[in-house]
């Protein structure tokens, strides 16, 4: 029997995951012992990237054990619910993050059958927390802002 989650449930999870991920990234921001490596594509990756992604994966797995997860640092992990996949960029802007520049965000999205359902980003360094859902409004901290539907965005892009 497949578990069913409402868009509001998924949006709430994305917001909770983003907030928790932000605590992890902020704890490593501008730390002298930040470990920086270079990936095969010559882009930087830090221990903070991996720690943030690991925390996001753990939270999603605890709440949505059947969902698939695709992360920039750890790759793809299969769940048993093939139609739902969380997509993670733990620190979008690693180069700036690793230099102590406050220009990064943690990005999280959920797709179902390849169609975006929920997406969000958080960056304490610049203070915005943004989450939105398919045919939903976009939540910016505690106030709602108008957000065009995906169909409208595709039509104008």
Describe this structure in words.
By secondary structure, the protein is of the alpha+beta class. It has one domain (7-156): Fructose-1,6-Bisphosphatase, Chain A, domain 1 (2-Layer Sandwich), CATH 3.30.540.10. The protein has 4 helices and 10 strands, in the order αββαβββαβββββα. The strands form 2 sheets. It has an 8-stranded mixed sheet with strand order 4-3-5-6-7-8-9-10. Strands 1-2 form a two-stranded antiparallel sheet. β1 and β2 form a beta hairpin. α1 packs antiparallel against α2. The chain is globular and about 45 Å long. The termini are far apart. Residues 137-157 have low confidence and may be disordered.
Rg measurement, Å: 16 Å
CATH topology: Fructose-1,6-Bisphosphatase, Chain A, domain 1
Intertermini distance: 39 Å
CATH architecture: 2-Layer Sandwich
**CATH secondary-structure class:** Alpha Beta
Report the structural category. alpha+beta
Looking at this protein, list some descriptive labels:
single chain; 157 residues; alpha+beta; Fructose-1,6-Bisphosphatase, Chain A, domain 1; eight-stranded mixed sheet; two-stranded antiparallel sheet; 4 helices; 10 strands; globular
């Amino acid at each position: 029997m497949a578990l069913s989650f409402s868009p509001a449930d998924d949006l709430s999870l994305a917001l909770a995951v983003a907030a928790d991920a932000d605590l992890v990234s902020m704890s490593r921001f501008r730390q002298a012992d930040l470990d920086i490596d270079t990936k095969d594509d010559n882009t930087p990756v830090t221990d903070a990237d991996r720690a943030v992604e690991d925390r996001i994966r753990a939270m999603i797995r605890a709440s949505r054990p059947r969902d698939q997860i695709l992360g920039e640092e750890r790759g793809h992990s299969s769940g048993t619910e093939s139609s739902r996949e969380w997509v993670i960029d733990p620190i979008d802007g690693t180069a700036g993050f690793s230099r102590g520049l406050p220009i990064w965000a943690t990005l999280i999205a959920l797709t179902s059958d390849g169609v975006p359902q929920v997406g969000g980003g958080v960056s304490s360094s610049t203070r915005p927390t943004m989450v939105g859902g398919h045919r939903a409004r976009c939540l910016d901290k505690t106030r709602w802002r108008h957000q065009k539907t995906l169909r409208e965005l595709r039509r104008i892009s």
